[in-house]
Design a protein that fits this description.
This protein is mainly beta. The chain contains two helices and eleven strands, in the order H-H-E-E-E-E-E-E-E-E-E-E-E. The chain has a single domain, classed as lipopolysaccharide transport protein A fold, CATH 2.60.450. The longest helix is centred in the N-terminal third of the chain and has 21 residues.
């Protein structure tokens, strides 16, 4: 009798195993993964604007954004282990002795531990052309040039920017394509890193059409 009970127990365990394997959906074998909780900003600001002055009171750069959302990631002891700010439509105006530079994108991210800001999605860099003097014609070289890329890291305090992504520069003299770029706005120097390909053209002589 006792031997039969052992047989019945083994059979029941076998049937249960077969049923579990037959119904071997991931819900049985692997517990469902919990969806990560949505991040809620710790603070936010709409239509943000700020200006940065150096120690001599000279305006270095201005910054605007449609929306700033500050996030804090808490650790096990409820202390923040990471803090960052997401930026919607950031725009920098970087001032130099001549006309200012403009840098903007659709999205950006500022990490608290760094002065560097990551920009992505339709990044544009351009410089306003010099003002025309009274009675002066508008030659092509006074037209604005524009650089576009998809990702860019910028340090507005040091006035430098860097990317490993493809870049495209449109100027009155043609088009330049390259991969990777370092821009130093202090000395108006843009260094292209790899695969530089340029197409030059003669600027239009507008004086002939006026």
């Amino acid at each position: 009798m006792r031997k039969n009970r052992f047989y019945l127990l083994f059979i029941a365990m076998g049937i249960a195993s077969i049923v579990m394997l037959w119904d071997s959906s991931e819900n049985v074998i692997t517990p469902p993964k919990a969806e990560p909780a949505p991040q809620i900003p710790y603070a936010f600001a709409e239509n943000a604007a700020t200006r940065y002055f150096n120690d001599n009171g000279v305006l270095e750069y201005a910054f605007t954004a449609n929306l700033l959302e500050h996030f804090r990631v808490l650790g096990d002891n409820r202390q923040p282990v990471d803090e960052y700010t997401m930026v919607d439509h950031p725009h920098f105006t970087i001032y130099q002795e001549d006309t200012p530079w403009h840098v903007e994108s659709v999205d950006g991210k500022l990490v608290r531990s760094s002065e560097q800001i990551a920009l992505w999605d339709t990044v544009r860099i351009w410089q306003e052309p010099p003002e025309r003097l009274p009675g002066e014609e508008a030659p092509a070289y006074r037209e604005a040039s524009e650089l576009t890329t998809e990702k860019l890291d910028i340090n507005p305090v040091e006035k430098v920017a860097y990317t490993d992504e493809p870049v495209k520069i449109l100027t009155p003299y043609g088009v330049i394509n390259a991969v990777g770029m370092t821009a130093n706005f202090k000395n108006r120097k843009i260094e292209l890193h790899h695969k530089v390909h340029a197409i030059h053209r003669i600027p239009e002589d507008r004086s002939l059409n006026e």
